[in-house]
Design goal:
Keywords: Activator, ATP-binding, Cytoplasm, DNA-binding, Nitrogen fixation, Nucleotide-binding, Phosphoprotein, Repressor, Transcription, Transcription regulation, Two-component regulatory system
Organism: Pseudovibrio exalbescens
Pfam family, one: AAA_lid_14
GO cellular component, one term: cytoplasm
Number of domains: 4
CATH superfamily of the largest domain: P-loop containing nucleotide triphosphate hydrolases
Strand order of the largest sheet: 2-1-3-4-5
GO molecular function: ATP binding; phosphorelay response regulator activity; sequence-specific DNA binding
Structural class: alpha/beta
Largest sheet: 5 strands, parallel
CATH topology of the largest domain: Rossmann fold
């Protein structure tokens, strides 16, 4: 049976009542206050086993109280709640030493679970608070999908864990990588980004590890590689799915041994970098094709982060539009406002280019139109342009799924030349079809598994098993 005294500070009486009922039912003793002054008096007198506090209170901000609590009682876990729901709120909570950050509204079962874990953990678990972060917000959005990402990022800031960021083009993968660096323990070191797709295959090893003079034709002098340039900081490997197999083998060796040699060199060089990788491809699909090393995947995929496409977080579009207009104004473009009807049209658009496409549209609106207020008719005009309705310059899509599969299989067998692919093709192909089918259906139903099972025509338990077996990430959002 759980036990302990929970100190709750929130100036909203309804929140205090709900928390009191939920925590009391769970077996805890609860003390309630509406201000930070009383909370501090309780803490300084030695009361309480855990604190739950809102950020904004009438007399003082919780982020001002947290350092004093950490200094006086470093083993007292503090759970921070906030309706502000920005990336910086989550980061500040982590930096100030909060045990957990919860955006409002939150799930009561999740809260009681957090309380139970916090009280059960050894008191030595606490992580020292670091210096306060900057005020400029690198990530924008208050949707449930983004809130979960903020919480994951906040937990990762004081670690050197390798991170794999997966998301469609334009979702902001490098922005997330930079946030992990700029607000993490390596913030004073270099951030070096490498796009694997932009480097000729025969130069990737030299680009990553450097080369010695005379190592190959044209190597007139020694050149440092990106690993050396990123020493003490973060190395961001973008489009990792485009790395050739030879370079994958060397990268795996570096991750395993913590050292590398330059091209043409013999002396091992110790490396001290945090690796963050990103891709818009399905690496497990590439593994099945024999194009990506499975052991490297597991080395890189220590902490996977999936960035949702903009169509899964349309409630963030107003905040993103205001943010991009503000950025454009700082760069000297005219200040703009936007009608609610215009915002609604933006929310209904599918955004094949994701956040990057939205940013480009906003900059175009700020630069090309003299009107101070962007109307829905202007949005209609922009969204009707061919550049806004095509995803890429690739050939037109196949007329049906059967044609697409037939074309894909022809290309797949062709990639092996005169050889054949590894055995087990039937089950690999079925898995590759099942994953996007289930993932797309869950996205369309906003993560509602009951609706998804009904739409697919399968039993709900069958769907749950497929989600678990295929490791499908479920993002729950509201329409």
């Amino acid at each position: 049976m759980p036990s302990g005294t929970i100190l709750v500070a929130d100036d909203d009486a309804a929140i205090r009542t709900v928390l009191n009922q939920a925590l009391s039912r769970a077996g805890y003793t609860v003390r309630l206050t509406s201000n930070a002054t009383t909370l501090w008096r309780w803490v300084s007198s030695g009361e309480g086993d855990l604190v739950i506090s809102d950020v904004v209170m009438p007399d003082e901000n919780a982020f001002d109280v947290l350092p004093r609590i950490r200094k006086l009682r470093p083993d007292l876990p503090v759970v921070v709640m906030s309706a502000q729901n920005t990336f910086m709120t989550a980061i500040k909570a982590s930096e100030q030493g909060a045990y957990e950050y919860l955006p409002k509204p939150f799930d009561l079962k999740e809260l009681t679970g957090i309380v139970g874990r916090a009280l059960a953990e050894p008191k030595s678990r606490r992580v020292p608070a670091s210096e306060e972060g900057q005020d400029n917000i690198p990530l924008v959005g208050r949707s449930p999908a983004m809130q979960e990402i903020y919480r994951v990022l906040a937990r990762l800031m004081q670690t050197d864990l390798t991170v794999m960021i997966n998301g469609e083009s334009g979702t902001g993968k490098e922005l997330v990588a930079r946030a992990l660096h700029d607000y993490g323990k390596r913030r004073n070191g270099p951030f070096v980004a490498v796009n694997m797709a932009a480097i000729p295959k025969d130069l990737i090893e030299s680009e990553l590890f450097g080369h010695e003079k005379g190592a190959f034709t044209g190597a007139q002098a020694r050149s440092s590689g990106r690993f050396e340039q990123a020493d003490g900081g973060t190395l961001f490997l973008d489009e990792i799915g485009d790395m050739p197999m030879e370079a994958q083998t060397r990268l795996l060796r570096v991750l395993q041994q913590g050292e590398y040699t330059t091209v043409g060199g013999r002396t091992p060089i110790q490396t001290d970098v945090r690796i963050i990788a990103a891709t818009n491809k399905d690496l497990q699909h590439l593994i099945g094709q024999g194009l990506f090393r499975e052991d490297l995947f597991f080395r890189l995929n220590v902490v996977p982060i999936r960035l949702p496409p903009l169509r899964e977080r349309t409630e963030d579009i107003p905040d993103l539009v205001r943010h991009f207009f503000a950025m454009a104004e700082k760069e000297g473009l005219p200040a703009k406002q936007i009608e609610l009807n215009a915002l609604e049209k933006l929310r209904r658009y599918r955004w094949p280019g994701n956040v990057r496409e939205l940013e480009n549209l906003v900059r175009r609106l700020a630069a090309l139109y003299p009107q101070d207020v962007i109307t829905s008719s202007l949005i209609d005009l922009e969204l009707s342009q061919p550049s806004m309705t095509t995803v890429s310059d690739e050939p037109a899509a196949d007329k049906d799924l059967s044609s697409a599969v037939e074309r894909f299989m022809g290309e797949y067998f062709g990639s092996f030349g005169e050889d054949l692919p590894p055995p087990g093709l039937y089950h690999r192909i079925l898995r590759e079809v099942e994953y996007p089918l289930i993932s797309a259906t869950l996205a369309a139903t906003r993560g509602n598994q009951i609706k998804a099972a009904e739409l697919l025509g399968v039993n709900r338990n069958t769907l749950r098993k497929k989600i678990r077996d295929l490791d499908v990430q479920v993002i729950r959002t509201s329409r």
